[in-house]
Amino acid sequence: MTLQQLKYVTEVADRGSISETAKALFIAQSTLSAAIHELEEEIGTALFFRTSRGILTTPEGHEFLGYARQVVQQAALIEDKYIAHAQPRQRFAVSSQHYSFTSSAFVELVHDYAGESYEFIFREGRTYDTIMDVSHFRSDLGIIYLSGFNEAVINKTLKEGNLFFRELLTAKPHIFVGKTHPLAGNRIVTLEDIEPFPCLTYEQGEQNSFYYSEEILSILHHEKSIKVTDKSAIVNLMIGTDGYTISSGMYPSYLRGEEIITIPLDVNEIIRIGVITHKDHRMSFLAGKYMEILERLVGEERQKQAGENL
């Protein structure tokens, strides 16, 4: 097993094509295919499915590629520092469910800690994808929530991925609505109050299970339901359709302005938002700083909300 082989397979996994990877690396397709075949023979594991539409990673390949990416990334850092004689390139990636404070923390991290050369990645998306990104080392850490309903299933997935959940905050469920919503003047709302209005949720793709929903109380039936994949779309729909979504109430005022308001939902539920990390992956300097920023932003927003409720 060589570093070159590991670079080859990670590139193929990212591009999904042997031919496109060969072109990008300026090598013959036969050379690339032979290198991958030799590596698969050596480790006794097929890394890819060859299909008429390209390359797909096998379940065993996903795990192997997670470790391969770590090796390739560490080698790149060594080359940057000791061979290229340049400032090491900063690398950091985070995956998250759709929370505004996680992207705010990412912006602050880039502003305060990015050097002359860096590659930062912020992935905001589906619950299962967030977990898999951390499990396969595509991201340094991820942000998801647990509740009494989904905890057993999510914890099983985390355990299978060798992941650890560190609680960041607990919150009572709130609804987010536009400022002109008929319920906007309420100090608290019930499930009966919100039922006549469209329920806005994030679509979860193939893992569209109640347990992977980003919204608490996912098993409830709604006569009016709208699913989206984009955070800006869900905000527009809150304003344009009298729709609502259920979340933690953490929506910074500087993002909200006067267009979106949060109202406590009268249910006996708790949301636990936390950070997931891989047990075999040592937390980097940037990951630690991102955690510090997250914790500070959460604390500041909590203090602000407490002041508004006095």
Give an overview in words.
By secondary structure, the chain is α/β, with parallel strands linked by helices. It has helices spanning 3-15, 18-25, 29-43, 59-83, 100-113, 127-135, 151-160, 191-194, 231-241, 253-256, 285-308, and strands spanning 48-51, 54-57, 90-96, 118-124, 141-146, 163-171, 174-178, 199-202, 225-228, 245-247, 260-264, 271-278. It has a domain at 170-272: D-Maltodextrin-Binding Protein, domain 2. The strands form four sheets. The chain has a five-stranded mixed beta sheet, with helices on both faces. A three-stranded antiparallel beta sheet has the order 10-7-11. Strand 1 (48-51) and strand 2 form a beta hairpin. It is elongated and about 65 Å long. The mean pLDDT is 85.
